[in-house]
Amino acid sequence: MKKTGILGGGQLGRMLLQAAANYPVQTFVLENDPDCPAAHLCHQFVKGDIRNFEDVYNFGKGLDAITIEIESVNIEALEKLESEGVKIFPNPTVIKTINNKVLQKQFYKENEIPTSDFIVTQTLDELKEHIGYLPAVHKIGLGGYDGRGVQIIKTTADIEKGFDAPSVLEKMVTIKKEIAQIVAINEKGETALYPPVDMVFNPDLNLLDYQVSPADLPEKILWKVEAISIAVVKNLRSPGIFAVELFVDDKGDVYVNETAPRVHNSGHHTIEANYSSQFDMLWRIILNYPLGNTEHIIPAAIVNLLGADNYNGDATYEGLNDVLQLDNVFVHIYGKKQTKPGRKMGHVTILSSDKQELIHQANRIKNTLKVVSDINQ
Ligand SMILES: Nc1ncnc2c1ncn2[C@@H]1O[C@H](COP(=O)(O)OP(=O)(O)O)[C@@H](O)[C@H]1O
Ligand SMILES: [Mg+2]
């Protein structure tokens, strides 16, 4: 049985391990927190820091393959392991490019992939010299995640919100829709595209609020989304699962926003709604089996379960009984012991061939199911 390691033990690792149970594979997880969502589903949990060279190298030495569930990992260790014959999904060079928003934007530009215009700034003082570029979005090169590290700079008054570190300043796109396109690519370079999804964001937390799949797109825009996403993945030259986030603007132009080189929140519905889920697909790629069928069986929506405001502590799930009474609704609780405001604690997938019904149920579930704690702080 092939030994495969996952760097990071969050919900993505957890769902990857749920899919691994169907394959001849022995699984290992490296993560600091022995109570993390993935710790109890793998064959072997290893406590350690995914950003530390020694920890990652020692973890990977005896393995056949490694994948990631988060990009902030020790890339040097992965490069050494790769040179010693361990297969890394995606390749470390890809993680390096994507991990840094400056390098990522430069990659799009070098490969003539449509993306919003940008300039690179090194300091906050330098940002102040680019008032003519506003309205724009300032994104820190390294270390941003889930909305942290992104600031909208509309006017000079907003400039203080910018980052005093290497960053990109992107022209603001008039977004009509945000789309995510998941692409699978194997070692032979064969690709498979999932139907794109419509992502609807919560403006306060900057986290995905709900999403609908397949996205409602005119055929020509769909073609652009697919062609651009394929171009991103082919130019990255690495096997794996990639989630390409794109903007469609008011003129129908399509731009790449960013790419995740791994399974992604925008693909969770594929567990129930598509023949081969993004997690199933990644195992097919890692273990060198044929790619799966990405087609959807039925349209789906996803609601993220975020920790409710004002609650910090041991998580409890209010309204779970009511939601579990609904037909064609699938609850995924990630098993995080502690809740805090805005923390991703789970998601709910809704299936229906009626799109209005999907949105109606999504809102109903958002209002019914709450992650709270016994102590209200
Ligand atoms: N150039 C842009 N123009 C308009 N809105 C943007 C732009 N870049 C990012 N955004 C908004 O900010 C959100 C977060 O930015 P993103 O780069 O995806 O960061 P994160 O790493 O937090 O996901 C996007 O989903 C989008 O709504
Ligand atoms: Mg994003």
Structural description of this entry:
This protein is an alpha+beta fold and 377 residues long. It folds into three domains: 2-89, Rossmann fold (3-Layer(aba) Sandwich), CATH 3.40.50.20; 117-171, 2-Layer Sandwich (Dna Ligase, domain 1), CATH 3.30.1490; 175-373, 2-Layer Sandwich (D-amino Acid Aminotransferase, Chain A, domain 1). Helices cover 27% and strands 31% of the residues. The protein has helices spanning 11-20, 53-60, 75-83, 92-99, 101-110, 124-128, 219-236, 270-273, 278-286, 320-324, 355-368; strands at 2-7, 25-31, 44-47, 65-68, 87-89, 118-121, 136-140, 150-153, 167-171, 175-185, 191-193, 197-202, 207-213, 240-249, 254-260, 300-306, 313-318, 329-333, 338-339, 344-351, 370-373. Strands 10, 11, 12, 13, 14, 15, 16, 18 and 20 form a nine-stranded antiparallel beta sheet that branches. A five-stranded parallel beta sheet has the order 3-2-1-4-5, with helices on both faces. It has a four-stranded antiparallel beta sheet with strand order 6-9-7-8. Strand 4 (65-68), helix 3 and strand 5 form a beta-alpha-beta unit. Helix 2 packs parallel to helix 3 (75-83). The protein is globular and about 55 Å long. It starts with a strand and ends with a strand. The model has no long low-confidence stretch (mean pLDDT 95). The structure holds adenosine-5'-diphosphate (ADP) and magnesium ion (MG).
Distance between the termini: 48 Å
Q: What would CATH call the homologous superfamily of the largest domain? A: ATP-grasp fold, B domain
As a percent range, the share of helical residues equals 25-40%
Shape: globular
Q: Care to count the β-strands?
A: 21
Largest sheet: 9 strands, antiparallel
| Number of separate structural domains | 3
CATH class of the largest domain: Alpha Beta
CATH fold descriptor of the largest domain: D-amino Acid Aminotransferase, Chain A, domain 1
Which structural class do the helices and strands define? Answer: alpha+beta
List unreliable stretches of 5+ residues: none
